[in-house]
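Continuing the series of single-chain predictions for the mutant panel. This is the parent chain; the variants come on the following pages.
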Amino acid sequence: METKDQNIKYFYARNLVIFRIIFILIAMFFLLSIAPELWFNTVIFIIVLTLLIVQYFMEYVIIDKDFISHQPGIARGKTSVLFDEVKSVRYDPKKVFIDYCNKITGEESTLKISLQVLKKDDRQEFLETLHTIFKDKEV
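Parent structure:
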């Protein structure tokens, strides 16, 4: 978790990313030592390595003073929900479900935030922050 501004909290999906980066590097060097003529495999490994590095620095959840924003992956869009739109919050051992109603469209939806991608300390701080913000909307 990182705080750039006093009101904004950033949580990163860094659980197991370092392990994946190390695995990709070992696999790339192993494949290069076995078959150096297969250069296109190295290109694929470099692309995967770049995506993992981007994922390491990507903000997974942002909690500001009046909204929560969630981006589950690099190619997936960011979902932002105002605190006023939240109807209820449910906690599961592996996920948090935030039920909300979009004020503009009137559409009801659920924001699902996986807790497995957060490191243990970040997960605990994230849950404490949610308990503080949504204590009256918990189910």
